[in-house]
Protein 1
Amino acid sequence: MSPQDRHNPKVERHQEETSQGLAWVYQVRCTCGEEFDEYYAKQLAEQDKHRHLGKVAAPPAERCREPKKHRMRPHERCALCAGQLSLF
Ligand SMILES: [Zn+2]
Ligand SMILES: [Zn+2]
């Protein structure tokens, strides 16, 4: 995985025809191209999202410690923060 790979999984929702009528279906899609199962419960889709983020997260030592300042997401590898380790 290259550091350029960004993961921004989002829960998307659409309506689907079922025998009971229209129902909302939730599905997670990530900017890395991965797609997940469809669920009728949003919670289950949220779980997929967290599982995916957990899987693709950078090693703890390389994660951004100041996501706001560095405009990163907390699970991402941050060159600024990871680089700081070598200064100590
Ligand atoms: Zn992803
Ligand atoms: Zn950082």
Protein 2
Amino acid sequence: MSGWTVRGGRLPAQGAVVVTGASSGLGRECALELESRGFQVLAGVRRQEDGEKLLAESLHGRLRHVVVDITDEASVLACAELAEREHGGLRGLVNNAGICVPGPLECLDSDQFRHQLDVNVVGHLGVIRAHLPLLRRARGRIVNVTSGLGKAAVPFLGAYSTAQFAKEALSDALRRELAPQGVPVSIVAPGAILTPIWSKVSEAGERALDGVPAAVAEPYRTAFRAFMEGNAQGAAASRTTPEDFARAVARALTDGRPRTRYWVGADARRMGRLARLLPDTLLDRQFAGITASVRGPAERHPR
Ligand SMILES: NC(=O)c1ccc[n+]([C@@H]2O[C@H](COP(=O)([O-])OP(=O)(O)OC[C@H]3O[C@@H](n4cnc5c(N)ncnc54)[C@H](OP(=O)(O)O)[C@@H]3O)[C@@H](O)[C@H]2O)c1
């Protein structure tokens, strides 16, 4: 072993890992997968009963839950204290928790936009800050979960895309800052995977246009509704699974030389490639169909 990486080969799946947002979906799958591979897992949940449910599914006696809301500093610090007390250090921190606030940007108020960024960006930085001493101590790694939408911003998911772009930048800067300290930072970027997030997004989408004046909402309504329906269908048809995601996280934690990025799913990889290769105007065309029926200013303000 040289420094914090090994040439070729793999690191053993040993030591403690914190996974945030483990109550459902990708985080739940990831917590169980990492436990099955040999890690001691501290699974972050917001409600005690979700932790107990997860514990009942755990098969190897190496998982315990910790109640943590990543926007609540006290609970984040308590999580780090527990990790220190029980394990001394951390082999991994998986920043997975997240929400998606859908809606045309004009229809979101500042509190909604801020909440998106608070959870998906600011909260993660707080978690990282609190756990870094433990990661340094145990030669640990950080895994940040972003999305295909961290490279190309989709209309009507502008707040979510903004948060994912920000988490990408956070990850890049952190990786460069922490490299000399031997703490690798990897991004795991999934495409659409059917998890509870999609029903939450659909429900939030139903309400997204309620709080704004009709004159603002109406021009978007038809296009937005069609987009939300298409989105839900796309997720339901996706062949990428939570297990694919969990395997990618496990690789990020055990690869001899961790990659900077692990795409999960052909759609995410394609989005990344398009964003890298296409000029903005061509990329705009990829998304033009989504907003084709949005009424323009002439129709909004007829003379
Ligand atoms: N599924 C996809 O298609 C997809 C694609 C790309 C990226 N992602 C990303 O993958 C991650 C997991 O998504 P998912 O699909 O598994 O969604 P999910 O099933 O809705 O799970 C989200 C998790 O985040 C937790 N969470 C929300 N706000 C939190 C907060 N303030 N503090 C702590 N935990 C919080 C939720 O806890 P509660 O149950 O308490 O709300 C839940 O455990 C997200 O970051 C998402 O952006 C998902």
